[in-house]
Structures are given as C-alpha cells and as structure tokens.
Amino acid sequence: MAVAVERPANDELRNLSLSGHVGFDSLPDQLVNKSTSQGFCFNILCVGETGIGKSTLMDTLFNTKFESDPATHNEPGVRLKARSYELQESNVRLKLTIVDTVGFGDQINKDDSYKPIVEYIDTQFEAYLQEELKIKRSLFNYHDTRIHACLYFIAPTGHSLKSLDLVTMKKLDSKVNIIPIIAKADTIAKNELHKFKSKIMSELVSNGVQIYQFPTDEETVAEINATMSVHLPFAVVGSTEEVKIGNKMSKARQYPWGVVQVENENHCDFVKLREMLIRVNMEDLREQTHTRHYELYRRCKLEEMGFKDTDPDSKPFSLQETYEAKRNEFLGELQKKEEEMRQMFVMRVKEKEAELKEAEKDLHEKFDHLKRTHQEEKKKVDDKKKELEEELSNFQKKKAAAQLLQSQAQQAGSQQTKKDKDKKNFFFM
Amino acid sequence: MEGQPVQPAPEETPRNTNPANVGLELFGYVGIEAVLDQMRIKTMKTGFEFNLMVVGQSGLGKSTMVNTLFKSKVSRKPTGPGYEEHIPKTVQLQSVTHIIEEKGVKMKLTVTDTPGFGDQINNENCWDPIIKYINEQYEKYLREEILISRKRKIPDTRVHSCVYFVPPTGHWLRPLDLEFMRRLSKIVNVVPVIAKADTLTLEERAEFKQRIQKDLKAHGISVYPQEDFDDNPDDRILNDKIRDKIPFAVVGADKEHQVNGKRVLGRKTKWGIIEVENPAHCEFPLLRDLLIRSHLQDLKDITHNVHYESYRVQRLNESNRLALSPVNGLLGKDEVESDL
User: Fold this and answer.
1) Closest chain A residue to the Cα of B137, Cα to Cα
2) CB contact at 8 A, B52 and B160
3) Does residue A118 have a pLDDT over 50?
4) What pLDDT, on a 0 to 100 scale, did the predictor assign at position A384?
5) CB B311 within 8 A of CB B138
6) Would you say residue A6 has pLDDT above 70?
7) Would you identify the family this protein belongs to, as annotated (chain A) (predicted)?
8) How far is B289 from chain A (nearest CA, A)?
9) Mutation target among B126, B284, B293, B324 for the A interface, most CBs of A within 10 A
10) pLDDT band (50, 70, 90) for residue B27
11) Residue B53: what are its φ and ψ, rounded to 5°?
12) Complex prediction ipTM
C-alpha cells in the first residue's frame, strides 16, 4: 500500500520565476567536474584490410605514436586486437581503447570474416550487462569497454563498395555507430572522389545500411553536423611524418609530384573527421552506444532468455521469478538428462555383461574341446606306448631266447672246441 | 570440419588494471577536452531533477526555508495572520513540483513536506511513513530499471536530500531527533539544520553545535557529507570544513527589507533586522551553497551510487531468499519430502 502523498490539485508542473540568483546554474559545471575527476572512456574499432592505414590514421588523429608492429598478411582468420592507452589533455583524462581487426580481408574465403567482429562487440555488451545484473555492482567506476565508434576503412578503388564491405557493414550497423571513411585518399583524383563518394552513399542507402547520423537536434552543433554530413564518407590521409611547408612543419606525405598535407581541407577530409569524431560528437557517440545499441542488445538478450515485462501488478519481480522458473526448468532438464544417461549406462553395462558371458561360454567350450583333444591324444600316445612296450617285451623275450640259444650253442661249441683243443693238444703232445 | 581455419579467440582488454595501459604523450593539440563542453551542452538540454525533503515539527520554518532557498514561492503555505494551520493526526507527505530555470539551466524541483511529524503526543514510529515513502521511490526506480524495454531516461523521484530541522533548544538533541536521524541516515542523505537560529546567540550556537556533533558521533549517525564517501584528498579537505560547521544554524525569510540602501532578505524585529544572506548573522548561505551551488550533483550521485544500490542489493537478496530454498536452488524439494 503506497503512502498517500498529497499533491496540489493541478498537478501540472508549474514554471516558477526566481526573484534572485539561486545558484544552480553551476550544476553543469558540478557534473563536468565530477566526470573530469573520474576520467572518460572512449573505444574505437577500426575495421579494414591489412595495410589500409588504420594504425597510421589513429596515430595522426590522436597526435601520438601508438606502439604497434605492422600486421602480416597471412593470418588464418580475422582476429581482434585491443589496446588501451591513457591520454591526458589539460585536465581531461581519456582512457582510449583502439581495437584493430587483424587479418581482415586477407583470407581466400572471407565468408566468416565479420563473425569475430560481431562476437567481440557482443562480448563487450555482455560484460556490461553482466555487471548491470549483478546484485552487488559498481557501475560508476566500471571500465566501459563497449565500442563507441566503428571506423570502417573503404579501399580507394574509385568504383564502388566491395561486397565484403557491404556484408560486414550490414552486420554491424545495428550494433555500433559506423562511420565510413575512404582510406589512402591521396590515390584518388578530386573529380573521381566525388563520384566515388556518391556511389558509396547510394549503395549504402539502397542496401539499408544505417551509418551513424551526426545529431542535428541541438542548435549549437546542428549546423556544423549538417554541413559535415554532406562530405560523408570522409576521404582521409594519415601521416605521422612532418614536412616543412612554408615556414612551419606540418603532417604531410611527400611525393615527387607534390606534397599532400593532412590538415589541409582542400587535400583531404582529415580535419573534418577529427572534428566530427572528437571535438564535436564524442559524447553523443558514447550516448548512442549506451542508449540505443546497448539497450537493443539487452532487450534481445533478455527476451531470448525468456524474460517478459509482465504487467507489474501480478509479479513483484518479473525478472527474478522468470529467472527462477527458468532455472528450475533448466535443473529439471538436467535431472532428466542425468536419468537418461544413467539408464543408458545401465543398459550398456547389461549388454557388456551378456557379451562377456558369451565370451566366457565360448572359452569354456574351447577349453573342453581342447581337453578332449588332449585326452584323445594322450590315449593315442598311451596306446602307442603300450604297443611299443609290447614290442619291447617281445623283443626282450626274443632276445632272451636268442641269448639262451646262443649260450647253449656256445656251450656246445665250447665243448666242441675243447674237444678240438684236446685233440689238438693230443696231437701236439 | 577440415579446411576451416581455426580462429583464435579475440583478445579482450582486461577490465581492471591493464598492464599495457600506456600513458602516452600527445605531440599536439587533439581536442579531447572539447568533450567537456559536449557534456555541458547535453546536460543543459536534458535538464536536471532534484528532490528535496524537509522534515521537522510544525512551526520550525520549513516552508519559509524552502522558499528562501529557491527564492520563489515553492511551497504555497499562506503565512498571514488569521490562518489556522491544521495539524494532521498522522504524518502526511505533501509534494510539490516546479520547474525553475536559471541561465539556461532547467531544473525540475520537487519538495516533499512532512506535516504532522513530531507533533503528536505519542510520536512513536512517526518516521515510518517517511521511510516508506523513500523506499517506495527507490522501488519505483528499480522497477523501471529492470524492465526489458526501458525508457531512455528513467524519471528520478528518489529523495536526494532530507533536511532535518532541529528545534533551537540549545541543549541536546532530543530522543526523537536521534531516532529519526539514526534511521534515515542509512537510506538517504540527511542534512541537519538548526531552525530559527535567531533565538540563539553566537556563543550558544557554537555550544549547541558542539553538543550536537558529539551526540551524532556517539550514536554513530553519519550525516551528509559522509566521511566514507570522500573520493580524494581535495574532497576530504573541503568536506572536513563543512563537517566542522554541521549543523548549520539557519534563519529563513522571504520578505525583503531595506538595509544600508540595499534590499536584502531578512526578518525585521524590534531589535534589528536579521539578514538571511549575511554570513555574520546566520549560516543560511552555507546551507544554500552546500545544497545547491557545490554539492547538488554530489548529493544525487551518492543517492544513486550508494543508497539506491544498497536498497537494490537488499531487495534482490530478499526475493532471492523467497524463491529459493537453501539447498542448491531446487524449489521446495526438502519441503515436499518433509510433507510426506
């Protein structure tokens, strides 16, 4: 039961006039001071082929040298590399994270090239969502890693967008603020550039790709944003080397036929990009990421998990209870699966047992068979033995008989011999 | 699947301390600080909301004080003679909302008054409706935050600051004051003030303040600005100075008088004119500076980051315990078995 709060009869908000200086006009300053002490986060994703000038452009944009080695061209797949830096200008601390797509456009089969990029963006949203859903959370000093701006580098072919570009941008446009730029624009002549730009824009429109719209609802920035939007996609040239032009050093690229000055608006749109990205719309980019892209992700994710906004009267915490219901459902499923697995296990065991029994039976049979064979052999051998023994005893008998005979014969012989001998001896005597 | 190249997982920046977090020097002007202006413009466009609650016995000058703070007729209590204020039998809460603008900055101000507080003979639990109201606002915000399709800007009705009027007895805090502040300081930023301070001399004021500070410390009541939430040493120094002077001895007035050729807000008495905005007379400017000119954003931040979060934690844990049994989350398994 809500506490009855009395409100005045006409509940419309009245505008009240102040009769003196109250002082809350310092509120924006208070807010800004708070943010300055905490620092800002800004995360840029650079999507483009290897060697198209992503790292150089980042160096040029932020007037510093981010350490990085140029990537090779033989990566097996697209990989995202994120690096964080802390920049400080006067009293503003910026935590800048630059995410690079290494190996984009290098493979022979580029069907899945966009997938790691989408995955990375979703992972950052997921991390923020997890933190937001925690019970004990600390959102105010959470290091925001969600991508605030995606610079899509278009190769300066001069004709039209590649199909890889169209597919990738279509997949990314609902997840991140896309700002298309034409890289290495010093390879395109002025008249070709104009045609190229309009071709790109019309292709984007006809394919339904939603790129980032510079906000025009705030009077202070509406004008500059409107004029800048006409020049999309920005044709940029990046350079960290300085060349002496006139009497000062400025960033430029030196060719035998001339010098391309990075910060000269007649030569390229680098200044426009820097204005739009950093000096005018950084805050808006961050806001759009949070209020549009992140909310969309959050809504889809929660709906996917089965949550609905039931009418608030029925359940005290629709999120909580749905979560519990889902959890119980999930646990029930797990239990069922466990049961299934257990049954299958039992069945398998039985089968194995039967098999083993069969095998055992077989073995027994074999054993019996072998035994029988063995016994037969033994019998055979025994029989043979007997035979042999018989033979042997016969032989012995024969031998004995023969010997007897022989000894008889010998005796007779010896008697004879004796007689002979006596005879002989008689003769000799 | 043969032939598919194995894609290694994407490298993610570690969230807390990144050893690769290189502090780099900028070789020239980039324009990062323009983001401050961008923020300023954005906040001026969206405007601010501020919800103030005033609590105290009737007759302590709450409505007048609010009018003085915002230099306009925020609360429309008629103060002329012949008007009999009806003291309600229970504590009620009355809210008025106005939109005020100054130098392009729009603010939606809501002031909640609590007539009937501490006016009965038996004042037990007279803080309950107030606590209930504050928690209801947190609940409303929580519901909005938890929706699947949320509004772009969740309307903020949470009470950012509760100004508690202490009657100028000059002695100690009364049990009612202690009880109230003890309970409320846990859920909202409480700013105690000594009301109608023109009845105390400067020495009496100083003594009274000392005693109040001792009392608060003895009972462990932390009023705004709370010591635990000082972000950095600069803040601490600033807030220590303020904490020295709490509670402010204030006088409210919405009539102007002529003093030394200038028109000032003040109370005219037979023995002189008490100038409300004169720091020598009363500490109203300090209160105004604290509430509006320097710490308004801080009040809102602490309400959002501390009080609201602890309400949320409490609420989520509560419904957690309701839905789950302690054993691995299966609903009512043990209870079913015990029924058999």
Assistant:
1) A2
2) yes
3) yes
4) 92
5) yes
6) no
7) Belongs to the TRAFAC class TrmE-Era-EngA-EngB-Septin-like GTPase superfamily. Septin GTPase family.
8) 8
9) B293
10) low
11) -125, 135
12) 0.76
